[in-house]
Design a protein that fits this description.
The complex is a heterodimer of chains A (173) and B (560). Chain A has 173 residues and is mainly alpha-helical. Chain A has nine helices and no strands. In chain A, helix 3 packs across helix 4. Chain B is built from five helices and 37 strands. The radius of gyration of chain B is 28 Å and the shape is flat. Classes of the chains: A mainly alpha (173), B mainly beta (560). Chains A and B meet through helix 1, helix 2, helix 3, helix 5 and helix 6 of A and helix 1, helix 2, helix 3, helix 4 and strand 20 of B.
Chain lengths: 173, 560
């Protein structure tokens, strides 16, 4: 495959790859680093990819190894899923429908607006103010378990909304 | 994705703990076990991290407020105007991607660092375009733009220049991007919103330089009519560099505006015209130009904004007719042909779904949402019945012979329709001049004839229930227009205006009325004081029929 095709194909799957890496390293900035590094390595190996399936499988494998290696280098305590689970999770990623960053950003923005004020506030505390669930519980005078539960339902709602949005756009195009 | 929101509640604490790295060994084992044995949980695990990555990315952009331009551009934090934020995120994502593509492709393999990849410096990016017909090479949203000329024929394009100046081009407009701190306005209308970090940003015009002193301002430029500068916020300095006033400087503060003649011989204070320039989104009016196979959009002043959909849209739309906004904030539009479909669009005119597939022999006309949330429509000219849409199909709600005990009674041209505040469905028959009330969907016998509400109207075409009053458009002769017909005696709802064949009308909050005159091929806004504003002066209508007022916000959005 030529370099441009490699870049574009990997870019098309960017939200998915960053999510995959994040599920291992659990630090967004580290996930971005691993993604960039993986991308550069994919470019360097572009001649060796036979097709997109080959490319994407290769990227997932490299991203996984890079993530684990990075955690080791950073001396992070490896609270990690076991290898068998990682294999299963990795193969599940290959079945997901790719979504471009732009589509994802637009859909997310739309879906955030559909949330109640209260739900949005929770998301903002978690991600704009980087509060942990326990910290949010303290601020809002709720039990941590209740905060996690509510956040989790908000995620489900957002995710469903994003899937609907992207499906309807896909149908339209 | 088919699982209910509660299905993975038991995973909430495990996922949160895993994400934060504070699971106990027992909890980690429980998570491992769950993921091994539950494929749906594995799928959700992946979607969870894809989603949280996207949310983090979104708030990261929000925190830095910056979009990565080339290094030559000052990367100061940006201040986006209200209502533009989501564009920033999408654009930021797109710009990051595009910049990365260029960088990565040209990055020398195995070298430690690369040189500047693109040669030309990106000084702006297109954040959003709405109904734009490009007069220059088309731009795509998120595309970094180097120094060049940009022209649009219609619609609106929002660009971010340098490290934060927002520029909205409105309608037929052409500008040249000279650099991150300067643009040249060739013609048209544009609004500039400059954050404090961009103080000194300037707009060049023939013989004039408009410099921002920390503000929001608008410029209109015409070779014939000269230049208008309107200051919506803050201050600007207008420096004359040619003509009889060469060397003169005019300082303008908020709510001030000036007109400069084309030959730069005179400068006159004029009234600020916020509406003509306001780049914030306001209420809009959609007009079904049925014979033109398109739906056009206007602001409330009748300023043409652009096309909502056309026959070239995807999917193509034939003879758009009835139009209504649903309780979900989407726009529903009927094709006024036999077998016509009812399509659903978002507020930007993007197709979302086919709401009703259409039936042979049925021509949807007026659309109304009922108190039950279902969509109803009249078929005035074909089957002459009233329908309700259920599960994407039209079902007869009121038959043509609507009174079983009086078989002779039937609809002639059932055109207008609305629900009153009691949930009754009112239908206007243009042929008989009657308005009839039928039991609504929540009554014991939905669709049953209840009473004759008004008779003797002159060819009533549309109905409107507002503020406990029933309005009807009447057509033909000097009485053409919108009339209040119930419960008080009939009275014209606007000052007398010479109208021909009025199909639909809307009452606006300020007491003015929008009137669609199909045979005159015009739409008017009749103000409470009798002044008439013509809609569509910039874009000739071919056969307007229906009109929709699209409010700024969907009031139901916040409800969950």
């Amino acid at each position: 495959m030529d370099r441009e095709t490699v870049v574009r194909r990997v870019m098309t799957h960017r939200p998915m790859f960053v999510g995959f890496i994040l599920s291992i390293v659990r630090d967004y900035h580290l996930a971005e680093d691993v993604y960039q590094e993986t991308m550069v390595r994919a470019i360097e190996h572009s001649d060796t990819f036979e097709n997109e399936t080959h490319l994407l499988a290769w990227v997932r494998k490299v991203a996984r190894n890079e993530s684990i290696e990075l955690l080791r280098r950073k001396n992070r305590e490896p609270v990690m899923l076991n290898a068998e689970v990682l294999d299963l999770v990795e193969s599940e990623w290959s079945r997901m429908t790719p979504m471009s960053s732009q589509d994802m950003a637009q859909a997310l923005e739309h879906c955030l607006k559909q949330l109640t004020q209260r739900s949005r506030r929770l998301i903002e505390m978690r991600y704009a103010q980087s509060l942990t669930g326990h910290e949010i519980a303290r601020v809002t005078d709720r039990k941590p378990q209740s905060v996690y539960q509510t956040l989790h339902r908000v995620y489900r709602k957002l995710n469903d909304c994003i899937q609907r949005q992207t499906a309807s756009r896909g149908a339209a195009s | 994705m088919t699982q209910a929101a509660e299905h993975f509640d038991d995973l909430a604490a495990l996922l949160a703990g895993y994400e934060q790295g504070n699971l106990s060994p027992a909890e980690l084992a429980a998570l491992n076990d769950r993921l091994v044995h539950d494929v749906e949980a594995r799928r959700w695990f992946n979607e969870y991290f894809q989603l949280t990555a996207a949310i983090r990315s979104r708030y990261q952009v929000d925190a830095t407020g910056s979009i990565p331009f080339e290094s030559a551009v000052d990367a100061a934090p940006t201040v986006a105007p209200r209502g533009m934020t989501w564009l920033k995120y999408a654009a930021a994502a797109a710009v990051i991607l595009l910049a990365a593509v260029g960088w990565l492709i040209q990055r020398p393999v195995s070298s430690s660092e690369s040189s500047s990849p693109t040669g030309r410096i990106a000084i702006a990016t297109l954040l959003h375009s709405r109904n734009v017909t490009w007069g220059s090479d088309p731009l795509t949203e998120g595309m970094p733009i180097a120094d060049r000329t940009i022209a649009i024929r219609e619609g609106r394009a929002d660009l971010m220049i340098g490290a934060g100046t927002m520029m909205s081009l409105i309608g037929d407009t052409e500008v040249r991007l000279d650099g991150p701190m300067h643009v040249t306005m060739i013609r048209g209308r544009a609004v500039f919103d400059c954050p404090p970090s961009m103080k000194g940003f300037s707009v060049g015009l023939p013989g004039v330089e408009v410099m921002d002193l920390g503000t929001r301002f608008a410029v209109a430029q015409s070779e014939v009519d000269g230049t208008e500068v309107h200051v919506l916020k803050g201050h600007v300095r207008v420096s004359l560099t040619g003509g009889a006033m060469n060397g003169r400087q005019i300082e303008l503060a908020a709510n001030q505006a000036v007109h400069l003649t084309a030959d730069r011989s005179t400068a006159t204070d004029i009234a600020l015209n916020v509406h003509a320039f306001d780049s914030e989104r306001g209420d809009e009016v959609l007009i079904s130009d049925t014979r033109g196979d398109r739906v056009l959009r206007y602001d409330l002043n009748g300023q043409y904004i652009g096309r909502f959909i056309t026959s070239e849209s995807n999917p193509p739309m034939r003879r758009p007719g009835g139009i209504v906004m649903g309780p979900d904030g989407r726009v529903y539009l009927a094709e006024s042909d036999a077998g016509g479909r009812i399509l659903c669009f978002d507020r930007e005119g993007r197709y979302e779904s086919t709401y009703c597939a259409g039936s042979p022999g049925v021509t949807p006309d007026t659309l109304v949402f009922g108190p039950d949330g279902a969509l109803y429509f009249t078929d005035a000219f074909n089957s002459k019945q009233v329908y309700r849409v259920q599960r994407s199909a039209a079902h007869v709600f009121i038959a043509n012979r609507y009174a079983p005990d009086a078989p002779g009674r039937h609809f002639g041209v059932p055109r207008g329709m609305c629900f009153d505040d009691r949930g009754r469905l009112l239908v206007a028959d243009r042929e008989s001049g009657d308005v009839l009330a039928f039991a609504g969907p929540e009554a014991a016998k939905p669709g049953r004839l209840l009473e004759l509400v008004v008779d003797g109207l002159s060819r009533p075409q549309s109905l409107l229930w507002r503020d406990d009053k029933l309005y009807a458009t009447q057509t033909g002769g000097p009485g053409s227009g919108l009339w209040s017909v119930y419960p008080t005696p009939a009275a014209r709802a606007h000052p007398p205006v010479a109208l021909n064949f009025v199909v639909e009308a809307q009452r606006l909050d300020d007491g003015s009325t929008l009137v669609v005159d199909t045979s005159a091929r015009l739409v008017f806004r009749v103000l409470a004081d009798g002044e008439i504003i013509r809609f569509g002066a910039d874009e000739k209508l071919i056969g307007p029929t229906h009109v929709l007022l699209m409010p700024t916000e969907n009031p139901l959005t916040e409800k969950e």
